[in-house]
Structure formats: C-alpha cells, structure tokens
Predict the 3D structure of the following.
Amino acid sequence: MALLNILCYPDPRLYTIARSVAEVTPEIITLIDDMIETMYDSNGIGLAATQVDVHQRIIVIDVSDNRESPIVLINPEIVWAHPDRVKGDEGCLSVPNTYDSIERALEIKVAAMDKTGQTREIHAKELLAVCVQHEMDHLEGKVFVDYLSTLKRNRIKTKMLKLQREQSR
Ligand code: NI
C-alpha cells in the first residue's frame, strides 16, 4: 500500500469531472486500498479519487469511531434525498484547517458498487449523509468552498496559496 498525494485547493485538477468505473480491476482495488490508507493517515472521514488526481468515480468513507469500517462507493448515484435540508460545519483534506457551514439533504439513499463489483444501496443519515454528499461533489469537480460567498472563497484561496508558498520554500 502507498500514501497518495492529496491535491490542495485551488488546484485546477480538483475541478475535473470524474469518469465512471467500467469494471473493478486489480488496479482499482489497489487505488481503493491506497485511498483508504491515505484517508486514515490524514485523519479524514472521506476521500474522493479526484483529490488524489485520479478522475474516476470512486469514494472512500469512514465515519466510525474505531476507524476500521471503511465504506467504498464506486459510481455512486443518489436515488432518493430527504426533502429537509440541514446546515453543518464541513472541512476537506484538500482545504486544510478550513471549516464552514454548508447546507445538505438530511438523509439520502445512494446506489453504488462496492469493492467486489456488487451494486448496493445505502441509506445514509447524519454525518454519513453529509460526507457522501461532500465526496460526491468532488467527483463533479466541486469543492465545498464553492458553496460559500465569493468574498469568503477568495479569502480561503489567498490563505491556501500563501500556505502552499510557505510549504514549497
Ligand atoms: Ni473534500
């Protein structure tokens, strides 16, 4: 297994729309295992392939306390969304140390392939519902800060670029 490099906002590659996965190949399995390892190593609760510069529709999530229950969603599709929406603070491994309140559907049902290639449906509530919607946005080339005002987003952009300049010194 290997740790993958996570793209940092405002990297333009985060705005790529991901392609569907046709088949779960050994290469896809390796990518998934590396994504899970990278997510745990970064203390994240979710990671989309887009964030590691692989533009295929794959996300990994673990909202459990023990951090031993990863969920893999390949080609996820929302098949039902609760009409009620809730606001909650979100962060993102691609936008370090930045949190803001985002509105999401309260609950969703998602159909997706798992690591074995089986299509399953999950009913996501609470933190899992938020996380799935956040990660699915990445596959559409959308970062959570894109929901914020231009003013806030520009502030975050400036902060991130400064951070990246300091780190590359
Ligand atoms: Ni994210």
Q: What stands out?
A: The mean pLDDT is 97. Helices lie at 26-41, 126-139, 150-168.
